[in-house]
Design goal:
single chain; 187 residues; two-stranded antiparallel ribbon
Length: 187
């Protein structure tokens, strides 16, 4: 992420609305990549398209006037969180319309990474488990958000959270084990 992008994000945080127009071309590819990773986990017949997810997330991101943007990892983390919220809300609405039948499933394996040979997990159940993890251990939940939903590396996650890479690895391992146990119990 360029210095210009960081300056525009800072200007946006200060309420300078003209910065949003200049920002989109600079962050669009980054957002598209995050959306592609998020949508990769969704079912193949999902009606929300990656481009629509990017646009909806961008509108929410530029409305973040209390955020002091700290760089690429921070931006990606918030963008991934916003996209996850959009997809979870979409899944909840779809489930409510079907009265719970046909809950939306996403692919997940023991590494908490998308995998075609993996088992399917209800996106809402994963979100609920992540909310419980947030209550128990907020740092573990942030690591899951950054690594799984944001696609950040161990090093990028460590930089975003200002902790060591070894701490990220240990917390990531513990968080994955806890979440998978919760998801198995939910089934």
């Amino acid at each position: 992420m360029s210095d210009e992008t960081i300056q525009l994000l800072a200007a946006l945080s200060r309420g300078e609305t003209d910065a949003a127009e200049k920002l989109l071309p600079l962050v669009y590819n980054e957002l598209k990549g995050i959306a592609a990773r998020q949508m990769q986990r969704e079912r193949s017949d999902h009606t929300l398209q990656p481009t629509a997810l990017v646009h909806e997330a961008y509108l929410k991101l530029i409305d973040q006037n209390r955020v002091e943007w700290q760089g690429r990892a921070h931006f990606c983390a918030i963008a991934a969180n916003v996209m996850r919220r959009i997809l979870v809300d979409y899944a909840r609405q779809k489930n409510a319309a079907k009265r719970g039948a046909g809950a939306q499933k996403i692919a997940i394996d023991e590494n908490l990474t998308p995998d075609q040979a993996s088992r399917d997990v209800d996106l809402v159940a994963l979100d609920d488990a992540l909310e419980r993890l947030t209550a128990l251990n907020p740092r573990h939940a942030r690591i899951v958000e950054l690594r799984y939903f944001g696609g950040l590396t161990v090093e990028e996650t460590a930089a975003a959270l200002d902790i060591s890479a070894s701490t990220v690895k240990n917390d990531w391992r513990a968080a994955k084990a806890w979440l998978l146990t919760q998801l198995e119990e939910a089934e």
